[in-house]
Amino acid sequence: MRFIHKTGPLKVLNNHLNVYPTPMNLSYAYNFGSLAGIVLASQIITGILLAMHYVGHVDLAFNSVVHLMNDVPSGMILRYAHANGASLFFIVVYIHILRGVYYSSGNQPREAVWITGVVILLVMVLTAFIGYVLPWGLSLGPIATVITSLATVIPVVGKTVLSYLWGGFSVDNPTLNRFYSLHYTFPFVLAGLSIFHIAALHQYGSTNPLGVNTQTSTVPFGMYFASKDLLGLLILLFVFACLVFFYPEMLGHPDNLIPANPYSTPQHIVPEWYFLWFYAILRSIPNKAMGVVAIAITFASLIAMPFLSCTHIGSPKFRVLSERLFFLFVADLALLTWVGAQEILDATIILGQVCTVILFAYLVIAYPFLSWLESYLYLNNIKMANSGNQ
């Protein structure tokens, strides 16, 4: 033990993994941060192995994936582990972010933790999109065209950015090469951001679910919570194994099992499930520029949450109205995801527009207003209690 405490790298690991002070009443909802790191490591490893067999050319990309699955030993498991790992990564990160919103985890002094988390989500979205296109299935070329064309709404330099993304006058081989290069690079950017995210978290410690002082009610992480994280990991591995070995295509789309054909476009283009709520927002706004602005406002609102919230009460159990509206917000996101997977009809467009209005009403109006109201009532109660004691 003396050796561990005196040696530099081992001392750092001991401080951050073993003796790190942790609130003694953490729930299993706090497991998803460590699970996200484990899934990211899995994605990097499987991605590197896949890159050894993938060919970044529009005429060969699909065939290289077929070759990997049919001819390379364990290639099918490798490919499905990477594809379903992306879905698990988003599930874990979405739950992790929603838990942060629920417990106001980004409030002062943890603003850096929250902001880096939102930046990680943004880089994840970019990484997943360009990786989703790489197999070059039937619907992937049209999806790449639609999404990259959104760059034209950028004032002055929009068309220049689009031409750089395409590498020509349309989505073609240069586009695929650019996507392949970026998809290989971004996971290492995510790893660096994750390290910064953990460092920012450990500077002030995890939030307490009850909102009490975490400095006087903490226990060492390694001794008390490693088993909780291990249980969460075992459940995640079980779900992962079920997806890879029994339902490998459950979260995919059958159109992408067909090679891309520039002369054939699927009747109903649908992105991966974790993009559907973005897609539903874009689809519900008729103007392309306003749709991009709406997505930008969504991320800006997420980044601004620590500055919009001034509540002094950490636990939502003592903020009943906030808790109810939070679950309404989660239900709205789930409904937007469902709408994004449906065909474009008058009913689905109207429903998407209603859900989009509810989403922005929560992020821009309800969340900051309730925070101010709860803080006002809380401070008033403290003043009344102090005056009563005097």
Automatic annotation (TrEMBL):
Alphabetical list of Pfam families matching this protein: Cytochrom_B_C, Cytochrome_B
Residues holding a ubiquinone: H202
Cofactor(s) the protein requires to work: heme; heme b
Compartments in which it is found: Mitochondrion inner membrane
Alphabetic keyword roster: Electron transport, Heme, Iron, Membrane, Metal-binding, Mitochondrion, Mitochondrion inner membrane, Respiratory chain, Transmembrane, Transmembrane helix, Transport
Binding annotation for heme b b566: H96, H197
Residues holding heme b b562: H82, H183
Gene3D superfamilies the UniProt entry points to: Cytochrome Bc1 Complex, Chain C (1.20.810.10)
Record's cofactor remark: Binds 2 heme groups non-covalently.
Annotated InterPro entries: Cyt_b/b6_C, Cyt_b/b6_C_sf, Cyt_b/b6_N, Cytb/b6-like_sf, Cytochrome_b, Cytochrome_b_C_euk/bac, Cytochrome_b_N_euk/bac, Di-haem_cyt_TM
GO CC terms, sorted: mitochondrial inner membrane; respiratory chain complex III
Domain of life according to the entry: Eukaryota
Role of this protein: Component of the ubiquinol-cytochrome c reductase complex (complex III or cytochrome b-c1 complex) that is part of the mitochondrial respiratory chain. The b-c1 complex mediates electron transfer from ubiquinol to cytochrome c. Contributes to the generation of a proton gradient across the mitochondrial membrane that is then used for ATP synthesis.
Homology family: Belongs to the cytochrome b family.
Name this polypeptide is given: Cytochrome b
Species: Dunaliella salina (Green alga)
Gene: cob
